[in-house]
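Task: complex structure prediction.
Instruction: return structure tokens for all chains below.
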Amino acid sequence: EVQLVESGGGLVQPGGSLRLSCAASGFTFSSYEMNWVRQAPGKGLEWVSYISSSGSTIYYADSVKGRFTISRDNAKNSLYLQMNSLRAEDTAVYYCASPQPGGDYVPGANWGQGTLVTVSS
Amino acid sequence: DIVMTQTPLSLSVTPGQPASISCKSSQSLLHSDGKTYLYWYLQKPGQPPQLLIYEVSNRFSGVPDRFSGSGSGTDFTLKISRVEAEDVGVYYCMQSIQFTWTFGQGTKVEIK
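Output:
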């Protein structure tokens, strides 16, 4: 069974930094791309970033480009999101999402429970 | 970026009655590989999104057959044949033809 567990959220002041982690289990993490998606309180879903299985291909939403950095450690089955220069509008629950292992290719099949990031003074 | 537009934004349904949600994309979601990368999710209160439908019409593992998806190109529909109380929440369509996923605004479904 695929399990994704996010951690690292919390309260941070505007301009501050935070590093989110996503621990993956139940599938061969190193074989699959991963994504971060966020959801501001009471709002819809916003894709944040993509990283390929090897980490060689990365994409960001324009809203976070230049401030956030996605990375992964395949030896530790972990995905990361380094968030710098945080703004109030970055306040959201951050989810990591993985494909379904095996069978049909389904990129956003599995989601973690999310970790809340609050940017406020 | 591809813009996804859902209608309606809210829906109140009597249990046992059908429901339908529309999703339109600003560009075709038909990829050169022949697949159409349109997905439907349900987000129940306090939970992460759960995948219902992938590639327009394929039910994901464990999804009841009262949920069905249809459409092509830029116009898509999610149908619930007989709404049950457990179907309340916000439904989102999503495209992944580009690596930069985009979601519809969400359709909130409640029970009358």
